[in-house]
Amino acid sequence: MANQDDLFKKLVSHCKEYGFVFQSSEVYDGLAAVYDYGPYGVELKNNIKKYWWMAMVQMHENIVGLDAAIFMDPKTWQASGHVAAFSDPMIDNKDSNKRYRADQLVEEYVEKKVMKKANKEIEKARKRFGESFNEEEYRSTNPRVMGYLEKSKTILTRLNTSLTNGDLADVKNLIEELEIACPESGSRNWTEVREFNLMFNTQLGTIAGEAGKLYLRPETAQGIFVNFLNVQKTTRQKIPFGIAQIGKAFRNEIVARQFIFRMREFEQMEMQFFVRPGEQKKWYEYWKGFRMKWHQAIHPSKKLQFHDHEKLAFYADAALDIEFEFPFGFRELEGIHSRTDHDLNAHQELSGRKLQYFDPELKESYVPYVVETSIGVDRMFLATMANALVEETVPNADGKDSTRTVLRVHPALAPIKCAVLPLVKNNEEFTSKAREIFNHIKYSFECQYDEKDSPGKRYRRQDAIGTPYCITIDGQTLEDNTVTIRDRDTMEQTRIVIDNIEKVVLEKINMRHLLK
Ligand code: ATP
Questions:
Q1: Residue 51, number of CB atoms within 10 A of its CB
Q2: Atom 8 of ligand 1: nearest residue by CA position
């Protein structure tokens, strides 16, 4: 079986070869960590956003949408704390001139040099003991494994403490003590560790200097906070209620690797849920469960896990990530945070405007508490592709085996829902009938007409982009108005009457299957 690295490379090249994702400005050798979505990518991405929007806004009477601007008054980012503290600790290697995130260098060391050894021991023992192996017991009794786990904990605790205390000199000491070398130059010739602010900025044309400095928003959430009262009043929502938004965010990531997992320009789907102070725990639990179910409708449960934050932001009273098992391991896909009244209070203070809600039941005004759910569209896209893309052995028409690449994406998310294929292209009767069908069903969903190459090749092409159904128009169609309909997953072909195509496809691609 191919290893995870190979699988990931295959996924990246599949995304390019089949028009899902291209490197930005590729003709100029590409802009690092910026990507463009191709024809099938944009369809899949739109469907993911639709699935989120339906689950959050359409299915909740008390959640409404918003589309705030990317530029905001720069004071927004002072109040939110981004100007002062939205930074990562960076370090440069003086020989390779490569820049790294200091915390990630240490975390990678722990993963590759310590935990890998522990996991190797555990796997060896699993093989030795077979069915009777008890991993938990082995972890807490085997001296070698215990040693590795202890070492990993000691290093990570020290890293977290130093970062929390802003003691960057100690982070540098840790890197030196662990003898971490630059992966590029192999040298340990490091600069000091410094904070690097991740916000991009630009300049307003009409105002010179600091006063005209504008930021590209690093998250969509602040647009929701500052509009909290506008939305509440105009929609007459009562607490608890939520505001949902999908939009671009920008972060000048120091290390942007792993394809669309970490980008400098990306898209977020965020929802801020405003609740009575004191009720945040209940809602945190609600959103934790709801969001996990949303993921489980798409991904197998074993590829998803909760990860409670070890280190909470000073204002937060609970936070966790929903992690997905990407080809490079379990990583954050979505964050759920109980942010108290921190953001609204900060905007209230700096703007001098009241951001309070009058609770008619309690007959008092207060600044609501907020529970937020925040997910990256691009990470969700990557997770969906990684989970759906499979290579499998299938029997050919001649009885021999061949491999096919198939994107087993949920039909509701598939870029193209139905391909319309005349059996041969040089038969005017077939092609005009196929066009007629295409022109009829295109009103209901995304279709594709294809007459190039052999039927086998066309099927493979549709499999690779995840099209749930292919319709073929053949001799019999002209006689009795039936077509064959081929199912992507089973590859079974059945005959149906033309008038039924729309109904069959619409049933299969209905978002309801995911939302229920
Ligand atoms: P990470 O720890 O991976 O940098 P984060 O904790 O900074 O992520 P949040 O600020 O909680 O991320 O952002 C919410 C979501 O936005 C993340 O769960 C992720 O899906 C997405 N996201 C954040 N940064 C990026 C990025 N650079 N590229 C793509 N998606 C991102």
A1: 22
A2: 332
Q: Residue 171 — φ and ψ, nearest 5°?
A: -65, -40
Separation CA 393–CA 400 (nearest Å): 10
Which residues are within 8 A (CB) of 88 and not within 5 positions of it... i.e. 6 or more apart? 101, 103, 195, 196, 198, 253, 254
**Phi, psi for 377 (deg, rounded to 5):** -60, -40
Distance CA 284, CA 273 (A): 9
Residue-wise DSSP of 313-379: -TT-SEEEEEEEEETTEEEEEEEEEEEETHHHHHHHHHH-----EEETTTTEEEPPEEEEEEEEHHH
What is the tens place of the pLDDT at every residue in 303-356? 999 999 987 888 899 999 999 999 999 999 999 999 999 999 999 999 999 999
Give 219 Cα–ligand 1 centroid separation in angstroms. 9
pLDDT at residue 6 in the model: 87
Residue type, 373: T
For ligand 1, which residues put their CB under 6 angstroms from it? 219, 251, 253, 262-263, 266, 268, 332-335, 374-376, 378-379
- Taking the centre of ligand 1 as the mean of its atom positions, its distance from the CA of residue 381, in whole angstroms, is 13
pTM: 0.90
Please name the residues in contact with 421: beta carbons below 8 A apart, sequence gap of 6 or more.
434, 449, 450, 451, 455, 458, 470, 471, 472, 473
